[in-house]
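TASK: fixed-backbone design
INPUT:
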């Protein structure tokens, strides 16, 4: 396909990471493949789609890490998508993911519906890396599945719809 991309991960030097971010921000490499090293503290505007190849483990940030990852897209009223590949190994985060989707008004995929019960409520901690003018509610997306369906919703002006 010959798609221009760059990568960020802990094995790259700081200089290489900075070069990858410059290429991504400038559009020279419009696809950035990154590990959790890019989940916090990096602000990139106009990210159109975040794809989680691996959902975060519960002992590595869990649902809060997931929210920070997908928060890179659809920010400040812009449209964006977030999709996640879900496997049996992601079962520990499944109930938290289902509750998050429920609370944000997203469609809950059939494979997560058994994790939702009447009256569930999820409380989020304050966004520790938000920037002035950012709205912590902007940019949430939804999870995807490995069966090939795209259950991600569009974000528009802080609301959700399709």
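OUTPUT:
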């Amino acid at each position: 396909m010959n798609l221009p991309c760059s990568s960020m991960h802990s094995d790259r030097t700081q200089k290489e990471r900075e070069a990858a971010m410059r290429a991504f921000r400038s559009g020279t490499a419009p696809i950035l493949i990154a590990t959790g090293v890019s989940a916090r503290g990096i602000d990139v505007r106009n990210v159109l789609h975040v794809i989680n190849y691996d959902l975060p483990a519960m002992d590595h940030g869990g649902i809060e890490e997931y929210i920070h990852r997908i928060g890179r897209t659809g920010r400040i009223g812009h449209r964006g998508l977030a999709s996640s590949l879900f496997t049996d190994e992601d079962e520990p985060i499944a109930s938290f993911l289902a509750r998050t989707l429920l609370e944000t008004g997203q469609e809950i995929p059939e494979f997560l519906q058994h994790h939702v019960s009447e009256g569930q409520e999820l409380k989020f901690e304050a966004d520790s890396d938000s920037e002035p003018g950012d709205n912590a509610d902007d940019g949430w997306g939804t999870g995807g599945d490995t069966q090939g369906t795209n259950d991600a919703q569009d974000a528009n002006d802080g609301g959700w719809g399709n």
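COMMENT: Residues 98 and 116 are 6 Å apart (CA to CA).
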